[in-house]
Amino acid sequence: MLEDSEAHYRAALGLFAEHGGRFDQARTQLLYGEWLRRRRRRGEARTELAAALAGFTRLGASTWEARAMSELTALGERPMLDRVADDPLKDLTPQEVQVVRLAAAGLSNKEIGAQLFLSPRTIGHHLYRAYPKLGVTRRIELVQLGLG
Questions:
Q1: Please, what is the Cα angle at 66 between 16 and 14, to 5 degrees?
Q2: How many helices (H) and strands (E) does the chain have?
Q3: pLDDT tens-digit readout, 74-110
Q4: What is the b/e burial string over 35-50, where b = at least 16 CB atoms within 10 angstroms of the residue's CB?
Q5: What pTM does this model have?
């Protein structure tokens, strides 16, 4: 019986991959991932659930996306959504946003400080606090994020 279930999930995924139906494919990946998780096949479940989450995110199916996230969370994952990347500045203070935008535009700490009436050392501190929030380690990465 269990082998039959798995064969049916795999057959359905093959059909959707071949003939389209992105929502149905994501939903089947979710169901298959749930089934795998309940059988303690964590690695396989993680793969299917992450694919389902990505599919629902692309489609904007927030209810299904939440269900996939809760399944991943049950596996001990902390899924990050692509939506978080839409606004990389949301976790920054207003002062950090100003400093980061000017740094991404190519200004030095001294130039930014002169423009904002702050010391270059304060500018450095703001960048030091902002980099981990943005997931960057260098100034050039600010430009790559599209902040310049």
A1: 10
A2: 9, 0
A3: 888 776 554 444 567 778 888 999 999 999 999 999 9
A4: bbbeeeeeeebbebbb
A5: 0.50
